[in-house]
């Protein structure tokens, strides 16, 4: 008898679900939280053209409208005062859905890669954090890892309270939790946290396509994504062209086969953007799109390790992400606060690769409104890419929100930031903002990780002393300072901080040299050949974006004694080229180079002749003035007749960049 009752109940639930008229996204479920102080929206579907009614426990009366031909509907409404115990109801002639235990307060989206994804359960707190959480007025919504080529409408998630008795709490973002905890302690209103992060993810798959619009430096990436996204005109055109070629080949193949001939391979299927957390698309479609439009206060973000090779270009990728999210939320005022990634040894990688990315993170604030960054190099672990202390991460992010969004003027949330350099008596005087009255050494010891360069561009270890809110830098090997850099190493843990105890991050006073030119670096999208190929593992790295002089990241020729030798780069199409930049490392015997360019191999025109100094790294920039170019040729007419670490007949090129506008 008991078994029969259970079966009947299960059957009733399944049938009711199957014939339910109203569908609501998971984010509109029991225990949800509304954003106070701004218009909220709820959306869903029901039977086509059905009449839909919205009512709530805090608004007298009801709102009524008809669903569209696809059954879609939405209601916009003002929220109640901050608090708990509210409810709302959606009703049609054949169905009714109530959402109970609704709160109203502050809602934030917490996103990024593993350092945001790391849970309180894995937080190595000697007090066992996961078992000590008891904040029932903080509501959590944890979106599982998913990726999709097309936009999804829902996620498998539900709201729950931040209490240790609920096992889901232990798997929630530790950084997000500490952010929400700090806000709750200061605001004393319900806090909603949406965890949508994935360890190892790049920034690109989180970015909606609309975010790339108008960012010239990312136009090639935008084009590639458009051509691989169903529903775009570019995708349709690309597939139509492929299918037409496929049909032509198929007819020809059938005729050849019937005649007893050999059937050649058909046209290759077009290359498509990778779908996944490490690809070009995917996580936005599956983990952000389902909640976009939900009324929120803003975003916090902790990501960058997977994009560390991007250098300064990351600033524009961050801009695309932020402006894209704001556009799909239809709210261009949403704040975006993020964490500069921490020092880490990263194996044998170029020590300057990480600070270049960190500089890009810093610069993102300059080109994207209402963004701010926190620095965490004072409590990191260079042997662990996941700094275990997530409490100060969340608290520093909360400090930005409290000061900038909630009017807590007494909060001092900013790290000291380099502002300018003056040269006085052979010393560099550096000025900083956000010192809060003074600069200091965190451990009371002399300042560390300062370097200085003269006209030759070679940096040497320097001494630095504090003078109020300035730092005076000197170096016995540099009499006329041209540039100073700080913490410019992947494992740097410097000790400079401000009066609020917040650390300074990496910087270089010649930052403009790192900012990529306007337009696109076309070289990585082309192909190249060397007249004297290298058979010992130096036959790559010419256009990989790395200027490091290392096998795999630096290109070398073979060691034939016959000169001249040349490299020919094919951009695959005629493009408008503004600049050609290439360089040699501080080893090898590269000397005289002529630079040619043109629309075809037979019409190359000499643009420049360059000479590199012996055993000195150098870069050369050749202005092309928007000329239409497909081929770039570097001709090595002569070499130094002495060794510099390798046989003198090797020619080394650290990198080749071609900046301009891609073909339509």
Describe the structure in your own words.
It holds the Pfam family SASA. InterPro entries: Galactose-bd-like_sf, SASA, SGNH_hydro_sf, SIAE. This is Sialate O-acetylesterase domain-containing protein. Residues 106-208, 283-398 form the Sialate O-acetylesterase domain. One of its GO terms (molecular function) is sialate O-acetylesterase activity. This protein is an alpha+beta fold and 664 residues long. Among the domains are: 230-272, no CATH class; 418-492, no CATH class; 520-661, Jelly Rolls. It is 18% helix and 31% strand. The protein is built from 9 helices and 32 strands. The strands form 7 sheets. Strands 1, 3, 4, 6, 7, 8, 9, 10, 11, 12 and 13 form an 11-stranded mixed β-sheet that branches. The longest helix is centred in the middle third of the chain and has 26 residues, at 233-258.
Lay out the secondary structure:
Elements: H1 2-18, E1 33-35, E2 40-45, E3 51-56, E4 63-66, E5 72-77, E6 83-92, E7 95-112, H2 114-117, E8 134-142, E9 159-163, H3 174-187, E10 191-197, H4 219-227, H5 233-258, H6 283-288, E11 298-302, H7 314-329, E12 336-339, H8 353-367, E13 371-374, H9 391-405, E14 417-424, E15 427-433, E16 439-441, E17 450-453, E18 459-461, E19 463-467, E20 470-474, E21 483-486, E22 496-498, E23 507-508, E24 520-521, E25 527-530, E26 555-556, E27 565-584, E28 590-598, E29 605-611, E30 618-639, E31 652-653, E32 655-661
Parallel strand pairs: 1-7, 7-10, 7-11, 8-10, 11-12, 12-13
Antiparallel strand pairs: 2-5, 3-4, 3-6, 6-7, 8-9, 14-15, 15-20, 16-22, 17-18, 17-21, 19-20, 21-23, 24-32, 25-27, 26-31, 27-30, 27-32, 28-29, 28-30
């Amino acid at each position: 008898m008991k078994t029969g009752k259970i079966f009947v109940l299960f059957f009733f639930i399944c049938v009711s679900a199957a014939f339910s008229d109203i569908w609501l996204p998971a984010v509109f479920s029991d225990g949800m939280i509304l954003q106070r102080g701004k218009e909220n929206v709820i959306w869903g579907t029901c039977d086509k053209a059905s009449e839909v009614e919205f009512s709530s426990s805090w608004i007298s009366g009801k709102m009524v409208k008809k669903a569209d031909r696809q059954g879609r509907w939405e209601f916009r409404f003002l929220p109640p005062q901050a608090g708990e115990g509210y409810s709302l109801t959606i009703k049609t002639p054949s169905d009714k859905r109530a959402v109970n235990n609704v709160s109203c307060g502050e809602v934030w989206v917490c996103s990024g890669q593993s350092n945001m994804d790391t849970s309180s359960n894995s937080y190595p707190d000697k007090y066992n954090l996961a078992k000590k959480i008891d904040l029932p007025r903080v509501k959590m919504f944890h979106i599982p890892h998913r990726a999709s080529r097309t936009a999804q409408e829902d996620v498998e998630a539900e709201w729950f309270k931040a209490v240790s008795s609920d096992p889901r709490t232990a798997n929630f973002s530790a950084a997000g939790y500490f952010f929400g905890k700090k806000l709750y302690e200061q605001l004393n209103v319900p806090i909603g946290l949406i965890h949508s992060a994935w360890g190892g993810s790049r920034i690109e798959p989180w970015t909606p396509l609309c975010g790339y619009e108008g960012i010239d430096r990312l136009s090639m990436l935008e084009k590639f994504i458009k051509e691989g996204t169903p529903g775009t005109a570019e995708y349709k055109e690309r597939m139509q062209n492929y299918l037409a070629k496929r049909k032509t080949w198929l007819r020809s193949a059938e005729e050849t086969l019937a005649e007893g001939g050999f059937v050649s391979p058909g046209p290759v299927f077009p290359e498509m953007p990778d779908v996944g957390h490490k690809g070009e698309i995917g996580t936005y479609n599956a983990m952000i799109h389902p909640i976009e439009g939900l009324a929120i206060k803003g975003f916090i973000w902790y990501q960058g390790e997977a994009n560390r090779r991007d250098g300064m270009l990351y600033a524009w990728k961050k801009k695309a992400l932020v402006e894209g999210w704001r556009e799909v939320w239809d709210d261009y005022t949403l704040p975006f606060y993020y964490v500069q990634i921490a020092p880490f040894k990263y194996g044998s990688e170029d020590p300057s690769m990480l600070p270049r990315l960190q500089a890009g993170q810093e610069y993102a604030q300059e080109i994207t409104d209402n963004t701010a960054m926190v620095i965490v190099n004072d409590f990191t672990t260079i042997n662990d890419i996941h700094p275990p202390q997530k409490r100060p991460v969340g608290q520093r992010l909360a400090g930005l929100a409290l000061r900038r969004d909630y009017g807590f003027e007494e909060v001092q949330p900013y790290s000291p930031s380099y502002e300018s350099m003056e040269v006085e008596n052979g010393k560099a005087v550096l000025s900083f903002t956000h010192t809060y009255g003074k600069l200091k050494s965190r451990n009371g010891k002399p300042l560390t990780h300062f370097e200085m360069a003269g006209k030759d561009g070679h940096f040497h270890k320097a001494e630095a002393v504090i003078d109020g809110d300035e730092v005076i830098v000197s170096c016995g090997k540099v009499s006329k300072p041209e540039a100073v850099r700080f913490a410019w190493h992947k494992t740097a843990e410097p000790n400079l901080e401000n009066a609020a105890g917040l650390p300074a991050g990496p910087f270089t006073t010649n930052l403009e040299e790192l900012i990529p030119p306007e337009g696109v670096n076309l070289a990585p999208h082309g192909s190249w050949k060397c007249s004297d190929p290298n058979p010992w593992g130096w036959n790559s790295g010419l256009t990989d974006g790395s200027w490091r002089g290392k096998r795999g990241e630096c290109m070398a020729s073979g060691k034939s004694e016959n000169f001249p030798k040349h490299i020919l780069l094919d951009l695959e199409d005629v493009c408008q080229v503004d600049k050609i930049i290439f360089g040699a490392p501080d080893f090898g015997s590269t000397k005289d180079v002529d630079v040619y360019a043109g629309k075809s191999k037979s019409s190359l025109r000499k643009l420049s002749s360059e000479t590199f100094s012996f055993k000195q790294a150098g870069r050369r920039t050749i202005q092309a003035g928007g000329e239409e170019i497909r081929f770039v040729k570097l001709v090595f007419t002569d070499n130094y007749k002495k060794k510099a670490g390798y046989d003198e007949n090797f020619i080394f090129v650290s990198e080749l960049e071609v900046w301009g506008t891609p073909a339509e």
